[in-house]
Amino acid sequence: MHYRYLTSAPFSFKDPMTKLHILMRHIKDHFGFKEKFSFPVPYTRQQLASLTGMRIETVIRAIKKMEKQNVLKIDNSKIYI
């Protein structure tokens, strides 16, 4: 039941940045990383789009906005959260 809630929670939001942030935060917490920008997201932008039910273009735009807001960092095409 808990897993189902966690996997469906990102889809209840309309905002793409919120969907991505919840998903990436859950993955980071699952692996036990606490420090900012210490966790390299193990998924491609295409995989993130598939996981959240969004188009790849939307994911790319949301990631860029999140980087400008200092929510995540992009280094050598890798996303760090």
TrEMBL record:
What PROSITE patterns does the database record attribute to this sequence? HTH_CRP_2 (PS51063)
List, for all copies, the residue spans of the domain called HTH crp-type: 14-81
Q: Name one GO biological process term.
A: regulation of DNA-templated transcription
Q: Which Pfam families match?
A: HTH_Crp_2
Superkingdom of the organism of origin: Bacteria
GO MF assignments: DNA binding
Spell out the Gene3D superfamilies in the cross-references.
Answer: Winged helix-like DNA-binding domain superfamily/Winged helix DNA-binding domain (1.10.10.10)
What is the name attached to this protein's record? Helix-turn-helix domain-containing protein
This protein's species is: Chryseobacterium endophyticum
